[in-house]
Design goal:
Catalytic activity: 5-hydroxyisourate + H2O = 5-hydroxy-2-oxo-4-ureido-2,5-dihydro-1H-imidazole-5-carboxylate + H(+)
Helix content: under 10%
Protein name: 5-hydroxyisourate hydrolase
EC number: 3.5.2.17
Shape: globular
Order of helices and strands: EEEEEEHEEE
CATH class: Mainly Beta
Strand content: over 45%
CATH superfamily: Transthyretin/hydroxyisourate hydrolase domain
Number of helices: 1
Number of domains: 1
Structural class: mainly beta
Largest sheet: 5 strands, mixed
Distance between the termini: 20 Å
CATH architecture: Sandwich
Organism: Cryobacterium arcticum
Radius of gyration: 14 Å
Keywords: Hydrolase, Purine metabolism
Length: about 110
């Protein structure tokens, strides 16, 4: 088992009440006015990515982009949101940051997880 990343995520399909499997996710860090790729992965069979990016990251602004369009297309389901981007501030370099996504074809929600 690989060590847990500093930033992790979980995607739940709120319509089915099941984990959203094989959602593409990209993690980036903002440096000045530019975004730099840190990592990309797909959610596992439990809708999770525990190894997204490095084990430690510096304080700053980050964004996670979820490829929700491909997820819904694979299920032959129309969606209003072909991608979801969440921008967040990482302030405590010693803390773990979990950024979950509750997803449906026409709505989404997120929160600071644990």
């Amino acid at each position: 088992m690989s060590p847990r990343s500093h930033i992790t995520t979980h995607v739940l399909d709120a319509v089915t009440g099941r984990p959203a499997v094989a959602v593409g996710v990209r993690l980036e860090q903002q440096v000045s006015d530019n975004w730099h790729d840190l990592a990309s992965a797909q959610t596992d069979s439990d809708g999770r990515i525990g190894d997204l990016g490095p084990e430690a990251v510096s304080a700053g602004r980050y964004r996670i982009t979820f490829d929700t369009g491909s997820y819904f297309a694979a299920r032959d389901q129309a969606t209003f949101y072909p991608q979801v981007t969440i921008v967040f501030e990482l302030g405590d370099e010693s803390a773990h940051y979990h950024v979950p996504l509750l997803l449906s074809p026409f709505a989404y929600s997120t929160y600071r997880g644990s």
